[in-house]
Amino acid sequence: MPALTVNDRPVRFDMDPETPLLWALRDAANLTGTKYGCGVGDCHACTVIVDGEALRSCLITLAEAEGRYVTTIEGLSRDRSHPVQQALVAEQAIQCGFCTPGIAMAAAALIQANPDPSEEAIKQAIPNLCRCGVYPRLVHAIQRAGRVARRLERIGAAPAPGISAEDAAEEVPAMAVPESEARE
C-alpha cells in the first residue's frame, strides 16, 4: 500500500502502485481540485507540488510518489490567502477556471523557489494550456504574487465563501510599496 503525505496528512492508498497519482488524489482522496485534462502531460491541468516541485500528477505513479510530500490546490491554503490565489483573482487572471488549479500550483512552486521571477522565468515555469488565453494577465498576477510573498504589497482580497466581510476584516498596518510597483 503506497504511503505518502498529502496536504500535510499521512495517507495510505489501497490501490495499485502503478495508478497515476492524479486518480489516487481524485478518486480515493476526493481531492477533485486536481483536474484531468489530457492524461499525457501536455496540458498541465493536473499539476500538484511534490516535494516542492511542480509535477504533472497524470505522469507520476503512486509508487513514484511513495514517501513524498504532495500538495494539491486544496492544501495550498484553506482560506484562499496564498499570494498566488489572491493575485490571480486581483489581476482577473481566471476565466472558466478549469486550468486554474494547475496554474496556481505551478505558480506557487515558482514563487517558493524564486519570489521575484522575470517574465521569461514565468513563461518557462508555467507551460499550462489555457483555452481562455489569460496569459498576459497571468504574468502580471504571478509577478504580483511575488511582491505579496516578499511583503512589498498587500492584496485586500474578498473573504472565502461563508465568511462575512466583517468577520474577515482586520487591522493591518500600511505597507510601503515602491511607486514603480504600485498597481490599481
TrEMBL record:
Residues 162-184 are annotated as: Disordered. Keywords: 2Fe-2S, Iron, Iron-sulfur, Metal-binding. Signal peptide: none annotated. CDD domains: fer2. Residues 171-184 have a biased composition (Low complexity). It holds the Pfam family Fer2. InterPro entries: 2Fe-2S-bd, 2Fe-2S-bd_dom_sf, 2Fe-2S_ferredoxin-like_sf, 2Fe-2S_ferredoxin-type, Beta-grasp_dom_sf, Diverse_Oxidoreductases. The keyword Transcription does not apply. PROSITE patterns: 2FE2S_FER_2. GO terms for molecular function: 2 iron, 2 sulfur cluster binding; metal ion binding; oxidoreductase activity. Residues 1-76 form the 2Fe-2S ferredoxin-type domain. This is (2Fe-2S)-binding protein. It comes from Pelagerythrobacter aerophilus.
